UniProtKB/TrEMBL annotation:
The lineage of its organism: Bacteria, Bacillati, Chloroflexota, Chloroflexia, Chloroflexales. The keyword Hydrolase does not apply. Belongs to the prolyl-tRNA editing family. YbaK/EbsC subfamily. Its EC number is 4.2.-.-. GO terms for biological process: translation. GO terms for molecular function: aminoacyl-tRNA deacylase activity; aminoacyl-tRNA ligase activity; lyase activity. Residues 32-149 form the YbaK/aminoacyl-tRNA synthetase-associated domain. It is an enzyme of class 4 (lyase). Keywords: Lyase, Protein biosynthesis. Pfam families: tRNA_edit (PF04073). The keyword Cell division does not apply. PANTHER family: CYS-TRNA(PRO)_CYS-TRNA(CYS) DEACYLASE YBAK, CYTOPLASMIC PROTEIN. This is Cys-tRNA(Pro)/Cys-tRNA(Cys) deacylase.
Amino acid sequence: MTTKLNSMRLLERHHIPYLVCTYTYDPDDPPDAAEVARRIGHTPQEVFKTLVVTAGGASRPLLIMLAADRQLDLKRAAAAIGQKRLELMPRHETERLTGLKVGGIGALALSAKPWPSYLDRGAEGLTQIFVNAGQRGVMLGLAVADLQRVLNATWIDAAI
């Protein structure tokens, strides 16, 4: 069992059941989300990555969650949330602002930050998905409805 993370404490405060899945990785070469899915024994459609984007200027970051086997369509996502344009936040800036390493970024771990969360509609037909717990090597499986509720995430069409 891994150390209790803030994301786990959040779920427990809300009485949300979850499953912890861990995997090993090389710190110098962390796996992408599709490889994480393979390592924890689930399909890429069930494993969701969290991407940090910005609408530019002084806007606060936004979190967009989508399946490991999908790519973010920035134009589609921008239109879905009423922005003219979105940009992926650069890696160094993402790590500085989140306090998390890329490959270990999870919306549950960032719930204390006032950043809007969006969940790609690809999750709507699923019962359970796996998201990063906020630390490389640790994924949490939970009901899609619980994730959406605890994060107050908005459903959008963001992936291609």
